[in-house]
Amino acid sequence: MMRKKPCTAHSATCGSSETADRRRPHLRDRRTQKAARRRWRTCHTPGVEGIRLAGPRDAGILLALQHRLDAQSSFMLLAPGEREQAPEQLRDRLAAQGAAGGFDLVADGPDGLAGWLSVDVLPYRRAQHTGYVVMGVDAAAAGRGTGTALLAEAAAEATRRRLLRLELTVMSDNLRAVSLYLRNGFQVEGLRRRALSRDGAVIDEYYMGLLLPEHAGN
Fold it and tell me: Fewest 10 Å CB contacts: which of 24, 75, 103, 167?
């Protein structure tokens, strides 16, 4: 019998939210309690053994996941065959990520990577507090809370990196993804009319954003 691996998310995100409330009175704040419950679910998501930061060694398996996502869903920006085929570019990007700015998260599943989320941050001072989100979940792991777990850890990691905002775009007819983002605190902030073309049809995109807690000194 295989033993389930422990959750590999950041240590502050694991454990019962009720226990955390008793030990740390500041968690009584409603917003903080809600975030704590989302992070608790990160460690209790069926089919997800942990959410962690991706590193250069993940380039090959992450690129393979991205190619699967491109083939599985017409809601991805890149069509099959448009993404790079060799992992060197992705490996260099992951190696350049430090303790600040953008980052990539992966969801480890029992048979490999179950999902991925990227947060890109522009290098310009006036925009360094905003992260742009792209994510995807393998079809085999869909409906198990993997997307919710990735978004919860992304918000926590972005807050640790002193970001103030996460934003994304999503095709307006991708109702499942829109619902996921709304449940995780994102709000629709605008409509990008005729933004994309897919299978001969012109598609609108929603522009969505999530505000993160402010740090003293920001």
Answer: 24
